Amino acid sequence: MNLKRTYKRENRKIMWKFLQYVGDNAKVYLILLIIFFIGIILGVFFVNNADQNQAEQIGGYINSFVNSIKENGYQISKTDILYQSIKNNVIIALVLCFLGCTVIGVPIIYLIIAYKGYCIGYTVSAIIASIGIGKGILFVFSTMLTQNIIYIPIILTLAVSGINLHKRIIEDKRGENIKLQIAKHTIISLCLLGVLLFESFVEAYISGGLSTVFIKFC
Fold first, then answer.
1. DSSP state for residue 100 in the 8-state scheme
2. Which stretches within the chain are classed as H helix?
């Protein structure tokens, strides 16, 4: 019981610190969210305004994937999803961590956040356009929502940490505290990478499983 109470207490502390961090950096989060949603809108716009050949290619790829599961019993490899997800998450965490330490890193961080939004907007719009609004929305919520509830806040927090480090490097002209700030940024990035690795397991074993179930029975 004591261990359980300690665990809950520590979880509350971590959650409180995270919410406090978000509050202290609300302006940066707001800017990143705007950029992220602009990326989503661009992704949706691209799919909705694709020419006939592009639309047929997008629809053909998704329908082919769906039919291969429905008719041929194709199984989504959870191991492959896990491996690819871990690889992608490690790369994005390291890139965002590194960019915060560079002079020209902030514009690239903004571009990465916009691109992540674009990918989500493109994927959601393509699915809905291919399998219909009702099934498309249900599919997106049942398979993409779970992992992105974890993924999006962590990516945004990695970006905020990098932007804050960049600002402190610019402000600290004498370079007295740069090493300390870089160390803090690195620790935050490693902790967030740990959460992203957990997200990889969610993506592989929960979202991946839900995708198969949804496609087979809908």
1. T
2. 2-24, 26-48, 52-70, 78-99, 105-131, 133-143, 145-171, 178-202, 208-217
Residues 6+ apart with CB under 8 A from 140: 124, 127, 128
φ/ψ of 173, rounded to 5, equals: -65, -30
Q: How far is CA 126 from CA 7, 94, 121, in A?
A: 42, 29, 8
Q: For the segment 81-94, what is each residue's pLDDT rounded down to a tens digit? A: 888 889 999 999 99
How far apart CA 176 and CA 190 sit, in angstroms, is 24
pTM, rounded to two decimals = 0.83
Q: Over the stretch 9-58, which tens digit does the pLDDT of each residue have?
A: 656 776 777 778 778 888 999 999 999 999 999 999 988 887 667 666 76
Q: Rounded to an integer, what distance in angstroms lies between the CA atom of residue 153 and that of residue 26?
A: 13
